[in-house]
Write a structure and sequence with these properties.
Blueprint (H helix, E strand, L loop, with lengths): L15 H11 L2 H14 L2 H13 L2 E2 H8 L3 H13 L3 E6 L2 E6 L2 H11 L1
Antiparallel strand pairs: 1-3, 2-3
Helix pairs in contact: 4-5
Length: 116
């Protein structure tokens, strides 16, 4: 049971080798928190709808996303601010129009499974 932290080493296990495999599967705490953050972003149906729309169609402006999702423009803007701050989407300005796209490769992979 080489992967069991010292504070848990004295606890009785049933399948010690599987405990080590489970600890290895959980991995680094920072990576775990990063994935939990991604999942929390995807847990909101409106944000997920925005991401699916962007993933399938490519760059879209706020007003177009509002029409596609049935949300109002301010709600779309707020959701995009959150997603942009998390590094999931990026905006590209063309004149007065900003078009957003999904830039996080890990999230793209998850969206592939959601849309399948």
């Amino acid at each position: 049971m080489h992967l069991v932290p010292a504070d848990r080493a004295e606890r009785r296990t049933i399948d010690g080798h599987r405990v080590c495999e489970a600890i290895a599967a959980i991995g680094d705490a920072g990576r775990l928190r990063a994935w939990a953050g991604r999942f929390s972003l995807l847990a909101d149906a409106n944000r997920l709808a925005l991401l699916l729309a962007l993933h399938r169609t490519g760059p879209l402006a706020v007003s177009d996303l509002a029409i596609a999702t049935g949300m109002n423009d301010p709600a779309v803007s707020q959701a995009l601010r959150l997603l942009r701050a998390a590094g999931v989407v990026a905006g590209e300005k063309e004149g007065r129009v900003v078009r957003y796209r999904v830039v996080d490769e890990d999230v793209r992979g998850l969206l592939e499974h959601c849309a399948a």
